[in-house]
Design a protein that fits this description.
This protein is of the alpha+beta class. The protein folds into three domains: about 90 residues, conserved putative lor/sdh protein from methanococcus maripaludis s2 fold (Beta Barrel); about 90 residues, Efflux pump adaptor protein, beta barrel domain (Elongation Factor Tu (Ef-tu), domain 3); about 100 residues, Helix hairpin bin (Helix Hairpins, Orthogonal Bundle), CATH 1.10.287.470. It is about 30% helix and about 35% strand. The chain is built from five helices and 24 strands. Strands 2, 3, 18, 19, 20, 21, 22 and 23 form an eight-stranded antiparallel beta sheet that branches. A six-stranded antiparallel beta barrel has the order 4-13-16-15-14-17. It has a four-stranded antiparallel beta sheet with strand order 5-12-10-7, with no helix packed on it.
Length: about 375
């Protein structure tokens, strides 16, 4: 019995020793690398991405634009009074010379009548004094006084007549009433804005051009400008640049461009309507070519600049990259600098990413955490 027990103990010892020798012979580094790879794959957050593509027709640049009237004026009375007529309603079309507002003229008519009476008296007195002076009946100083009184009365008469005329407001040009600031029967003070009038014969569009484009191309970039209205999306119209701001916007680093364009005959264009401005640039000649990025990939930083998250093809932290945006297109937004074709950018959850995370591109057709 003792021999049997001893034999079993010896056999267990041999098995245990063989196991120790086997495990000690396997490289521990291999197991560590496998565990690390599994942990990295498990911890890397999948992120929906899109690959950056070159912009087709890279010599074209499109920018969102806003319609504005070529002539804009806020009309007001140069005299005060009670408003008794106000014909111009917002959106109504008026013609040049048409009466659109009128003040109560009675006080100004009375003042004009009084001025007329004083003028008539001063004129008669001057004529009489001149006759007497020619007969040496009166003095030269009395004649001078009569002439001064007459001139004062004449000036007052012109002033009162002008004040009466100013109680009537007429349209200075053909246009449309954009806004009314007062209502009928209000007492308004002089120089109080009554309504805003905008021309309808010629319109302008305003859009922003990035400073990088202006720096690279200069005035050549604005040689050929075309405009397309959202209400008539199939037609591009030639436009002519009228104004270019001399200083870039402090936040967006863009220059405002105003271009004139003929109003469409069959459309009623009003200020604030949307349009698209297109610049036709010369052949590239070494200039950087724009790329397209999904609009969902772009987010604003606290510094007012635009950014995207660049995602590596393997698991790695995302890279927050500043980009300079160009115009909008149906396929996405133009990126003038900061990205290159072939790079991947995050297109969802951009506000929840950080550079401390480990991420990877989401596999095609996968959803959620895969």
């Amino acid at each position: 019995m003792k021999k049997k027990t001893l034999l079993i103990s010896l056999l267990c010892a041999v098995v245990a020793g063989g196991g120790v020798l086997f495990w000690s012979g396997v490289p521990q580094k291999a197991f560590g690398q496998q565990n690390q790879a599994q942990a990295a794959t498990t911890c890397a957050r999948p992120v929906p991405t899109a690959k950056i593509q070159p912009a087709p027709d890279a010599n074209l640049r499109e920018f969102p634009a806003t319609v504005q009237a070529a002539r804009r004026v806020d009309l007001s009375f140069s005299v005060s009074g009670v408003l008794i007529e106000l014909h111009g309603k917002a959106g109504s079309v008026v013609t040049k010379g048409e009466v659109i507002a009128r003040l109560d003229p009675r006080d100004y008519q009375n003042a004009l009548d009084s001025a007329q009476a004083r003028y008539d008296e001063a004129r008669q007195n001057l004529m009489r004094t001149r006759t007497l002076r020619s007969q040496s009946v009166t003095t030269e100083s009395e004649l001078d006084s009569a002439e001064a009184t007459y001139e004062t009365a004449e000036a007052e008469l012109r002033t009162r007549r002008k004040a009466l005329e100013d109680t009537v407001m007429v349209a200075p040009f053909n246009g449309v009433v954009a806004r009314r600031y007062v209502e009928n029967h209000e007492h308004i003070q002089e120089n109080t804005e009554v309504l805003s009038l905008q021309s309808i014969d010629n319109i302008e569009v305003s859009f922003q051009v990035p400073e990088r484009l202006v720096a690279q191309w200069g005035n050549v970039a604005l040689d050929t400008v075309q405009v397309r209205f959202e209400a008539d999306a199939d037609t591009w119209r030639e436009a002519k640049v009228r104004e270019v701001s001399a200083e870039a916007d402090a936040v967006t680093r863009t220059y405002e461009v105003v271009a004139g364009v003929d109003a469409p005959e069959k459309l009623k264009m009003l200020s604030g309507m949307t349009a698209v401005a297109r610049l036709l640039l010369p052949a590239s000649s070494g200039k950087d070519v724009a790329v397209l990025a999904p609009m969902t990939a772009v987010f604003g930083g606290s510094d007012g600049e635009s950014y995207v998250w660049v995602i590596d093809d393997n698991q790695a932290p995302p890279v927050k990259t500043r980009v300079e945006l160009g115009g909008m297109r149906d396929e996405g937004v133009e990126v003038l600098s900061g990205l290159e074709p072939g790079q991947r950018v995050a297109v969802a959850g951009v506000h929840s990413l950080s550079e401390e995370m480990v991420v990877r591109p989401m596999r095609a057709g996968s959803e959620g955490l895969e």
